Input
Amino acid sequence: MPPHARSTPDGSAASVELARILARERPALARAVTLLENERAGAAELAASLVAHCGRAHVLGITGAPGSGKSTLINALLGELTRRGRQVAVVAVDPSSPVSGGALLGDRVRMGEHGAGDNVFIRSLSARGHLGGVARATGRVVDLFDAAGFDVVIVETVGVGQSEVDIGRVADTRIVVCAPGLGDEVQAIKAGVLEIADILAVSKGDQPDARRTLRDVRTAAQARHASGREPDVVLTVATAGQGVAELVDLAEAHAREFGVGRRAREAAPRAVAAAAPHATDDALFEALAGWRARGKGVALATVVRTWGSSPRPQGSLLAVAEDGAFLGSVSGGCIEGAVIGEALEAIRDGQPRMLEYGVSDAQAWEVGLACGGRVQVFVERVE
Ligand SMILES: Nc1nc2c(ncn2[C@@H]2O[C@H](COP(=O)(O)OP(=O)(O)O)[C@@H](O)[C@H]2O)c(=O)[nH]1
Ligand SMILES: [Mg+2]
Output
């Protein structure tokens, strides 16, 4: 049983659903994407509860101008990655097209070849409503697939500056696709693509202009050498599967060198930074009272028992508001995400819960209690 589910023995609908997600049950994944994409009630809580399970997937960002061959390349990558035994999820983001639109339908048909397999899960996201929605939904859906245990999560976005999704934020390895001709390569360089690319893939290598484009892109990549890491360059013919294994090799080498879990790494220090300045109990209760006065639901987490080298003593407090604001600390930052997720659920369902995390427990690795020790935390809604 996934650890998170075990820590909520109340068997609430949300914890059952989370258990199904962690078990990578496809209907649960599909429901979760829809919930997150449409920001329905419960989306923020689900997102918060996923965080503790994230950080293992290799997130590949694939970006480039429309028509540059991203979807075709992803289709080829799916073949190569599954041959290598990887479980792969794809999030295709195209804010300019509705889900049923031609471009995305085309994406689905091409990528659909692999969609039926248990090792591949593909979803398209589109902008619905307000600005910022796609970016937030994309990050959350990537977390969902990461938490569900996919080894690789591929995010397809339209070229730099044309998408509100900042691929540099989301992806561990950023692949920029440059198609031959049309001055795309020059455009790409102008658009600052070189600054974000870890790997430059010159697509449609079977086209007459491809060699020249490859030369131009190589020259541009070398020029960046002075200002940072020189991006790798690879020529691909996705329609014939050429250069695809090499691209996967380069991506995997990049992950080995720079690690994965960029999103998780960015989120974790935030949690630590916010939690670390030990709020005095007075300050914490003052904040709690302030949130309640503004009509927000609130919960309080209390460390009730510690073993070994737990970084926070018994009686340490963490206050959480329904919008995700929090103050205080129950650990060195390593289980705050999980506890906040539980607190949000407690605010919603009113059920108090006792949680346990620790190195002597099978859960330890799952919750990333890198700071050691073992801890029991009681979480309750404050009325
Ligand atoms: N000749 C050739 N055409 C390709 C190749 N890869 C993609 N295409 C074509 O380029 C067009 C755009 O591809 P698509 O993958 O939809 O581009 P995206 O908009 O970047 O996702 C399609 O007509 C593809 O068939 C390739 O390796 N060689
Ligand atoms: Mg596409």
User: Anything to note?
Assistant: The longest strand covers residues 298-307. The radius of gyration is 22 Å. Residues 70-71, 107, 156 surround magnesium ion (ligand 2) (CB under 6 Å). The domain at 56-260 is CATH 3.40.50.300 (Rossmann fold).
